[in-house]
Structure formats: C-alpha cells, structure tokens
Amino acid sequence: xxxxxxxxxxxxxxxxxxxxxxxxxxxxxxxxxxxxxxxxxxxxxxxxxxxxxxxxxxxxxxxxxxxxxxxxxxxxxxxxxxxxxxxxxxxxxxxxxxxxxxxxxxxxxxxxxxxxxxxxxxxxxxxxxxxxxxxxxxxxxxxxxxxxxxxxxxxxxxxxxxxxxxxxxxxxxxxxxxxxxxxxxxxxxxxxxxxxxxxxxxxxxxxxxxxxxxxxxxxxxxxxxxxxxxxxxxxxxxxxxxxxxxxxxxxxxxxxxxxxxxxxxxxxxxxxxxxxxxxxxxxxxxxxxxxxxxxxxxxxxxxxxxxxxxxxxxxxxxxxxxxxxxxxxxxxxxxxxxxxxxxxxxxxxxxxxxxxxxxxxxxx
Length: 364
Known about the structure:
Elements lengths: L5 E6 L29 H10 L7 E5 L4 H7 L8 E3 L5 H16 L4 E6 L3 E2 L2 H14 L5 E6 L9 E5 L7 E8 L3 H10 L2 E11 H11 L1 H11 L8 H8 L7 H6 L5 E6 L3 E2 L4 H11 L9 E3 L2 E5 L5 E4 L4 E5 L4 E5 L4 E5 L6 H10 L8
Parallel strand pairs: 1-2, 1-4, 2-3, 6-10, 12-14, 13-15, 14-16
Antiparallel strand pairs: 4-9, 5-11, 6-9, 7-8, 7-9, 8-10, 16-17
C-alpha cells in the first residue's frame, strides 16, 4: 500500500499496571516480551505497521521517559517522529495531539491509530482489512476494526452494526465499558463485537469530530498549534495539554458520533491487558500447559492439588503450589503476586495501594 498520505500512530504512553509486577511504570508492558516469542509488543506493532506504512510516516506518541527504551528496541525509528505527551491524559487527548501534529505536516493525511501493546496473530488479514479502511477513510468516516467477543468483559467497547454486504459496516450503537449485566446481554444477543482500538480516519474527519463532540478540548489544544512551529515543544505544550479533559476517545468521540463504521475481522487479536488474558491465550493454544491445565512460564514447577493456574516467573527459582485452583502467580524482581484469576481486574487498585505505602513506590 505505502501511500504517501497514509500515516501510522503508535500509542505508547500507557503504564499497563494490570500486568504488575512485570509491567511497571519504568518499563510497562509494551516494552516486554510477555509471550516469549523474542519480540516485545511495541516491536511487533512497529513491524506490522511497517508492512503498510512508509517508515518516515510512522509516529509514536509517548512520554519522554520512554524515549530511550523505544530507541533501544526500535533503533531505526526516527527521532523527528516522536510525539511527546507532557503527561498521560487518556486516549482522546493523545489522538487529538497526534492528528493536529500530522495535519501540520500533511493536511491530506489518513491515520491508522494502533495501541503499542496488542497482539495480532494473522497479519495478512490485518493488512487486508487496514487497506480497506484506508480506502474508505476519505469519506468522512471514523473507522474501527472489530473482533468477535469471547466473553463478557467490562473493559471493552461493544459495537452493534447495520448488516450489509460490504466489508465496512455502519455502526448502529457503540457502548464503551458497560457494566457486567449489559456485557452479558450483548454477548447473548450475538449482535455485538468488540472494538480492537485500532482506528483509521483522515485528520480532517477526526478533527471535525473533536470540534463537534469535544469542542473545549479542541479549542484548548489549538492554542498550542497556533504558536510558531519553531517554539512548539514539550515546554510550551505542557501548560496547555495538562488542562485537557482526561477522557477516552471511546467516550468522547466514538459513543457520540454518527459517522462511525466498523470492519469486522478474524485476525486473532488480543489486548493482553491482564494476566487472565494471557492465560486464555495459552489455554487456547495448549502451549506450556501441564496435565492439570496449569500454564507454566517458569523454569521449574511442582504442583499438588493445583489446577488451572497461571505461573509466570522472570527469575530462576523453583515454584511449588499446593491446593490452589484458578490463581495467577507472578514473580519478578519487583514483586510477587498471588491472586485469584477472577480478581485480576483489581491489580490496578493493588498497585495504587502499594504506592501509598512507605517505600512502596519503588516496587511499582
């Protein structure tokens, strides 16, 4: 494809605390090889996008703390293509920052927005569906790639679309992070798919959407972009950017807009947002599992009355479990987590509590 008007934006500011103690603020999950395949998530994301976007048109939104680790893991990445956030402000702000930055470079740009920490199994289909999305992005469409849900999950956006023969479907309803009861009803209906968070649109379309649905955010950030480009930098951006509303692109734009479209896919997508999600991936493939359905990503394990557990260790030590079922046991140089798999959504709260403890922050 490699059209000069096509750009990619990789979102890489997140801290991934739900995957503590491996993912930490200093080195979050996008910079780890969590699946043991020899490449980190951000490396996989960059290489996938490089197949459809010229290298000079790939940008990364992140914070300055992660610049060196990005350069270490992607040595060819261009310094000029960093878009630095002064502070992590959720996905609405960083999407608008990226769109307005690239609009200065090319007002005709079309963007594919990709989180840095997702996994795609079938890249050929990803390329096919992304190509279709780019072909339709000129027509004032906000396009997302969707996948069939595998479980009721309150952390995803649910999309109901109007059935039609074309690959791209008009979205009928868009619900971000419903409560469990609604998520269960969406799954039972068979009419909803998940948003992968991979988004395709023109800079014109998305900026128009911000003007309509988040006008204060647009007007505030515009104060930065009317500055002469030679003084546009993180210092002049900070006092403006840090006043923006902390909201997601899902809540702020996609739930409200009436020009949202989805392309259903089957390319083997996973958010890998929790230890339970990684467990499900290994359970599905059958890799690294013993006869009691324990997933073993460690050097030595002995189990007694231990079933359906997920054990992950970055250190060379023996792990022995007795009497545990459906637990995650995660060992790293920062900490040891032993938690029911049903409670992995609480890890973010555990880490917040740990930060408040005396000397606890150094483990986060």
